[in-house]
Amino acid sequence: MFFLIPPLALLLERFVGYPPLLTARIGHPVMWFGWLIAYMEQRTNTASRTASQRKLAGVVSLALLLLVALAGALLVQQVTRSIPLGWLLEMLLATPFLAQKELGRAVEAVADALGISLAAGREAVSQIVGRDPQALDETGVSRAAIETLAESTSDGVVAPWFWLVLLGLPGIVLYKAINTADSMIGHLNERYRDYGWAAARLDDVVNFIPARLSAVLVTIACFFMPDASPSKAWGAARRDARGHKSPNSGWPEAAFAGALGFSLGGPRHYDGELVDLPTMGNGDRRLGRYHITRALTLYTMVLNVLLGVSGLLALTIALGA
Question: What sections of the protein cross the membrane (predicted)?
């Protein structure tokens, strides 16, 4: 029955999510990774070390993180696969590593806030992006929210699901540990350029297939959304993804942009510095609350398609067993 874990985990997390009470009491598994990453970084990424020493410290710290994550996941899996109905417990333990519900809620909060005021929209979007919120007009706030939705569809939903299907509980746990490390230390600034090198490179590797799979899922989802274009979604992904600074993020972003007929990317401010990024899609650049709502509708269709694919995989395994 372990083949039922991926579709049931998707279903449970999408409609129930991670209980806020648990977050308040014990935190979230991703938070646990974050605490360990921060602890090691503060003690090993010191200014007194050379660039090569910081790079080595980052490699060792990442290896320790993954060793702890893998050991814990394998221990839990050994227990769940030795007790009656253990697969249900394993499914419950896999759900926190998916982010369907929280991602949709966070992006919807930006749309709702924009309905109140631009200031409220800036405050809401600052919770999910790193760019300077005060430099954003309504289009900037909307674009930031949609870009986050598109990118996180891949690394927050599709990628963890992919590694859960491929390697079970250890796969999704290891992926989330890598992705958390990249989000915390995989930056190209003075502090993390060397120390976070290994985390950033490994994150690129584990997201390579899921990012492209995400573009495929967006394309398929367009067939279930009357005002979305499957051909433009896939065309934009193939044309524009390679221009993105990330080898992976451009695929879901360009697919969303092409599907919905507007443009993402372009210049934005980080820590007071203007960063000029390539454009994804070739449609309308004036975006607002309405466009966020359309993107959320497409996101829902993508989740439906992913659940369907996961269910078909489980059925195929069941029939072949």
Answer: 20-38, 59-79, 161-178, 296-319
